[in-house]
Every structure is written in structure tokens, then in C-alpha cells.
Amino acid sequence: MAIMSACALAVAWAACSKSARNADSLAATMDTTAKPAAATPTPDTTATTTLTDVNIVALLDEANAGDSAMGKLASTKGTSASVKEFGRDMMRDHHKLREAGQTLAKKENLAPQAPANDTLATASGKMHDNLTQMAKGKDWDKAYIDNEVAVHQAVLNLLQTASNSAQDTALKSLITKAQPTIQAHLQKAQSVQSKLSATATDTTAKKPEAKKPE
């Protein structure tokens, strides 16, 4: 279950990237077994391997780095005010979480070591590239926030697995402190997602009908 949780996070980034407008070329490079973000990823043969403390430190650093970079992009490229604000929050909060993790790793002498077959950083980078190439607008906002919902759901699962697997007490404490923040991020992302959906529906409903030729 440990590696499955790590893989789930990578799958979430990969699957959500397909909803973006320029995703065709990206999707071709992603795992062809990727399912929708809410689905359970295909079991990996390494799924029985337990995450070590150095694995956990590496995965959390990758997740925080990825979402901080994605937030920075949204803060400038987002169109909706709520998306831009959310992006700024993610850039700030995940940067702080990453700094806390790096400080703890040095103090506890935990040199980050990603688990075997880890694709989290690669998937995050490809999603970032895809959003960078995609044109600004409502579709961009939706692609970004849909990805954020899926990713934060996956991060919560990863934190739960990491909490159960961690041996270092300071690392366990850091994970426990991070969980409410990630839960709050998820709820905020879902709220923004609902607003975007409501706006899109309202715009469609108010769209005037084309005049019939006389």
C-alpha cells in the first residue's frame, strides 16, 4: 500500500493533465494505464515495499516543490480571481512546508531517497509544462483547479501512509501537522472548482439563442 499511495499521486497529476487543451502530446508520454484521478491506480509489483523515512522525505519534498511551482504559475496565468488567489496560497504554503521538511531532514540526518519507480516529480513537471503551454482562459482555470483537487486528495492518502510507515518521531510529528493544512487546501480547491462550474453553467444558461432567419 505504501508505494501504491506514492504512485497514486503521480497518476493523479498524469490523469488530470489529459483534461487540458494541449494534452495530446503530453498524454502520449504518460503511463497508458493511468485512470481518472478518483480511480484506484493499477497495482504495482513493488506495492508490498514499505516506505522508509528517507523515501517519505523525498516524496514530500517532490509534492511540495511541484505544487508550489504550480501555484506560482496559477498566480500569474489564472483568469479567475479565486484561481489566482488559490495559486498564491499554494505557492506560499507549499514553499513553507517544503522548507520545514528540508530543515527536519538535515536535523534528523535523513538524506532524501525516492522509492523505486517513483514518477511523482516527472508527472508533476509534465503537468506544469502542459499548463505553461496552454492558453489562458476558463479552460486553463478548470484544468488547473481540477488537477489541484485530485492532487490534494492523493497527497492526503500519501500522508496517511507516510504517518503509518515513518519511524522518526520528528518526521511523524511533521506529517501530523501538515495534514490539516492539506485538508484545508483540498476543501478550498473543491470550493473554487464548484464556483467555476457554477459560473460555466450560468454563462451557458444565459447565452442568447440565435435568431431564426425570417
Describe the structure.
This protein has 214 residues and is mainly α. It has a single domain, classed as Ferritin (Up-down Bundle), CATH 1.20.1260.10. 72% of the residues lie in helices and 0% in strands. It has helices at 2-17, 23-29, 53-77, 81-107, 120-133, 138-165, 169-206. The N and C termini lie far apart (66 Å). Mean pLDDT is 82; it is low at 17-48.
Name some characteristics of this structure:
214 residues, Ferritin, 72% helix, 0% strand
In short:
The chain is mostly helical. It has helices at residues 2-17, 23-29, 53-77, 81-107, 120-133, 138-165, 169-206. It is elongated, with a radius of gyration of 19 Å.
Structural class given helices, strands, pairing? mainly alpha
Q: What is the CATH class?
A: Mainly Alpha
Mean pLDDT: 82
Low-pLDDT parts are: 17-48
- Beta content comes to under 5%
The rounded Rg comes to: 19 Å
Globally, the shape reads elongated
**CATH H-level superfamily title:** Ferritin, core subunit, four-helix bundle
* Structural domains: how many: 1
Roughly how much helix do the residues carry, as a percent range?
over 70%
Main β sheet profile: none
How does CATH name the architecture? Up-down Bundle
Question: How far apart are the first and last residues' alpha carbons, in Å?
Answer: 66 Å
The name of the CATH topology is Ferritin
Question: How are the SSEs placed, and which strands pair?
Answer:
Elements: H1 2-17, H2 23-29, H3 53-77, H4 81-107, H5 120-133, H6 138-165, H7 169-206
Helix pairs in contact: 1-5, 1-6, 3-4, 3-5, 3-6, 4-7, 6-7
